[in-house]
Amino acid sequence: xxxxxxxxxxxxxxxxxxxxxxxxxxxxxxxxxxxxxxxxxxxxxxxxxxxxxxxxxxxxxxxxxxxxxxxxxxxxxxxxxxxxxxxxxxxxxxxxxxxxxxxxxxxxxxxxxxxxxxxxxxxxxxxxxxxxxxxxxxxxxxxxxxxxxxxxxxxxxxxxxxxxxxxxxxxxxxxxxxxxxxxxxxxxxxxxxxxxxxxxxxxxxxxxxxxxxxxxxxxxxxxxxxxxxxxxxxxxxxxxxxxxxxxxxxxxxxxxxxxxxxxxxxxxxxxxxxxxxxxxxxxxxxxxxxxxxxxxxxx
Length: 299
Prior knowledge:
Shape: elongated
Strand content: 5-15%
Distance between the termini: 21 Å
Structural class: alpha+beta
């Protein structure tokens, strides 16, 4: 196809958008809403996953040692713990460390713990990599010689895994549904355009116009609608994300600020949001147009 013909067909596609501006605006509006929901779902899914990962990093198995275990033997046990699969980090607390912590917690009660310096066992705080196999990791740790007991928050681990799975599957499921809805919207818009121009298309076919020559303006129309909707929706999502993060950062709540540290910043995601929305608009516009033209362009 010559450059002049291609330029003419692109302009023809944009002309069709102007001629059917009410339908075009409605299509852009609905697609923008779909892309908005998709952007929110994606950001929510990614951030909840990061929060769950952050909480998992704080999730520890407490391994207490037998009272008769001395420092040298405790160090050897620590090396064994580091060699257990799924162990990410190991922190040692001696008997003196455990006593000092308890004493600081009970400081208002004076010398209540005087004479009990040696009753607190040494322990290891073990952070795991994968919560789904935390029980197996706990069993391995409990089997090490010199370990008295282990404490593992299995219920908390199960809750975090369930939340992560629900948000991940639910979020991407919503994205898939909205993508399908967007394709249907584009397809119906192009279908109406094809129907309105059926006589003109018939004449073009009789004078020798190829299928590609006839179809290209419809592809231009569908893709342009997708690009416009992608740009509008990505701009709104980025602006909304900025204001929400700014609001949360201004709450000065220790727990919220800790969780916010694991969130993606706008600087990390804005270009992915914009590029993703525009590319999605082009693909959805193309797919919607192709399905509509293939089924309804019968001339």
